[in-house]
């Protein structure tokens, strides 16, 4: 099992959600976050407009998936959120030790 954490532009959420649902995703968690990357948050271009700020608002998306679905989900994320500009975000991937579905007690892959 893997945990995918993607930091994305807030305006890409709906497109991403639809693409993930269309590809049979089990679920996702969204958190509002603020951060910076290589540009140190100083200048970020969005639709040709430069924004200057220290911490830029992003959304953090978390998805738990089976190992065999990892590449497909990453492809869907890349294709849904990429605008080809600095600030498009990043994807972090972690091993996920355990998942427990509280309602049924199912564990592991069965709980996704
Ligand atoms: N090294 C990092 N560690 C933790 N969070 C990061 C890191 N780099 C980026 N982030 C998070 O991802 C968000 C988007 O980063 P961003 O897309 O600007 O990355 P970047 O490295 O500057 O690449 P780009 O040149 O495409 O902008 C940041 O606001 C921050 O929340
Ligand atoms: Mg950046």
TrEMBL record:
For molecular function, the Gene Ontology terms on record are:
ATP binding; enzyme regulator activity
Q: Where are the transmembrane segments?
A: none
GO BP, one example? regulation of nitrogen utilization
Any idea which residues bear O-UMP-tyrosine here? Answer: 51
Q: Does the keyword Metal-binding apply?
A: no
GO CC term (a single one)? cytosol
Q: Which domain of life is it from?
A: Bacteria
Record bears the keyword Phosphoprotein: yes
UniProt keyword terms in alphabetical order? Phosphoprotein
Descriptive protein name: Nitrogen regulatory protein P-II
**Organism of origin:** Ilyobacter polytropus (strain ATCC 51220 / DSM 2926 / LMG 16218 / CuHBu1)
């Amino acid at each position: 099992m893997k945990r995918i954490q993607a930091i994305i532009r807030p305006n890409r959420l709906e497109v991403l959600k639809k693409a993930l649902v269309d590809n049979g995703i089990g679920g996702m968690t969204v958190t509002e976050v603020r951060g910076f990357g290589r540009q140190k948050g100083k200048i970020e271009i969005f639709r040709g407009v430069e924004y200057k700020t220290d911490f830029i608002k992003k959304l953090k998306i978390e998805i738990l998936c089976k190992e065999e679905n990892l590449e497909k989900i990453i492809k869907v994320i890349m294709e849904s959120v990429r605008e080809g500009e600095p600030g498009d975000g990043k994807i972090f991937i972690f091993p996920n030790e355990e998942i427990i579905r509280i309602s049924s007690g199912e564990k592991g892959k069965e709980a996704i």
